[in-house]
Design brief:
Helices cover 29% and strands 21% of the residues. It is built from eleven helices and 15 strands. The N and C termini lie far apart (81 Å). The radius of gyration is 24 Å and the shape is globular.
Length: 388
């Protein structure tokens, strides 16, 4: 009997191999980093991979942060995104590792979320400091990420510039502002009361502030209640690190993507990545005039069908060469339309060819607009200048 079964068994063994060999479109290999494990800080987790787009001129750059609740994950998870499409479009890509919150807690950093947030800013500054060497245009820097990484990028996008013009460290003098951000499953708030109001079964975020969490669902529900009870005690930290708290009218455009239908005020299957986060941030940004697009099941029609489509639309084409602007009261600045450039404590923002907004900026404080100089008060040299 076994002699009769053997040919069939042999066919079953060979068939899968034959099918795979005949596949005319095998998955394309993911790009290899141009530069891998480049340190942007002293900690072993402070490393990045740089993927250089093939271009004779300077390219836009995307900063990407992996997810993992700030406790796990790796920069190689960018392979889950269609980032080869960005490279093909002429956008260079940077994917970073960052320090975890439990490492911050071990180092007695309070709150622990300060480390991954600071690493997000530092990585962007480091990348900008490499603009000439890496052939990137520092004016066209965007951010993206998944889950906790998206939360960090969103915090940076909405935060005022963290550049320190007086620093002896040239990297610290670089801007932390983004041209736009496109985010996957971002937590837009770290306020437990706010999260519970939006999504009653919320149970995320306590670990950002050094409070305990558990993998066991029932136990974590009880621990989240402790997070709610202790909210007032840690409110200054919440105000400092919750992304929605940073929103101001001068923030860049935001794109939010979720794979679930929003349901405000109702328990969600995945409360940690609920589209409710996106709906409430969009409400806030709409109210202050910041462009915000949300893509999720049941959302109104939106212009871009994916994070990659959005980034390509926002980062391309090149805005053109910078103009050199001379103000009689300051040193010469090289700026581009829509670009912020700092000199000492004074920040000039070219909004249009008709006026220049003058703002006084202090580290970690809100930028304060103190008035406009009409364009007739400065001289513009027609010759193109190197972008800052």
């Amino acid at each position: 009997m076994f002699r009769h079964l053997w040919p069939a068994a042999l066919w079953l063994l060979c068939c899968p191999f034959t099918a795979r060999a005949a596949d005319p479109t095998p998955p394309a290999a993911k790009p290899v980093p141009t530069l891998a494990d480049v340190p942007y800080g002293a900690h072993p987790r402070q490393v990045l991979d740089f993927y250089r787009a093939d271009s004779a001129t300077r390219t836009p750059v995307l900063l990407y942060l992996h997810g993992g609740a700030w406790t796990n994950g790796d920069k190689t998870s960018i392979s889950r995104r269609d980032f080869p499409r960005l490279l093909a479009a002429g956008i260079s890509v940077v994917s970073i590792n960052y320090r975890y919150v439990y490492q911050a807690k071990e180092a007695h950093i309070t709150p622990p979320v300060a480390w991954p947030m600071a690493d997000t800013a530092r990585a962007l500054q480091f990348v900008r400091s490499k603009a000439a060497e890496w052939n990137i245009d520092p004016r066209r820097a965007a951010g993206s990420g998944n889950s906790a990484g998206a939360c960090s990028i969103l915090w940076l996008a909405l935060h005022d510039d963290l550049a320190d013009p007086a620093s002896s460290d040239p990297v610290a003098r670089e801007s932390t502002r983004l041209l736009c951000a496109a985010l996957d499953a971002a937590q837009t708030s770290l306020d437990p009361v706010q999260m519970r109001e939006w999504t009653p079964n919320s149970r995320y975020g306590a670990h950002a502030f050094g409070l305990p969490i558990a993998k066991d669902f029932a136990k974590n529900e009880a621990l989240f209640e402790d997070f709610v009870r202790r909210r007032d005690e840690i409110l200054p930290w919440i105000k400092q690190y919750s992304p929605i708290e940073q929103a101001t009218p001068d923030d860049p455009p935001i794109y939010l993507s979720y794979d679930n239908r929003p349901g405000l005020g109702r328990p969600q299957k995945d409360p940690t990545h609920s589209a409710n986060f996106g709906v409430k941030l969009k409400e806030r940004l709409d109210a202050i005039g910041v462009p915000c697009e949300i893509a999720c099941p049941g959302a109104p029609a939106h212009e871009h069908d994916s994070i990659e489509s959005y980034l390509i639309a926002k980062l391309l084409p090149d805005p053109g060469p910078a103009q050199t602007v001379t103000n009689p009261e300051t040193r010469r600045l090289s700026v581009a339309d829509g670009t912020t450039v700092s000199t000492a404590a004074v920040q000039f923002v070219i909004d249009t060819l008709e006026n220049i907004d003058v703002r006084i900026k202090e580290p970690r404080l809100k930028t304060k607009k103190i008035g406009d100089l009409r364009f007739s008060h400065v001289s513009v040299n027609g010759a193109p200048a190197t972008a800052p």
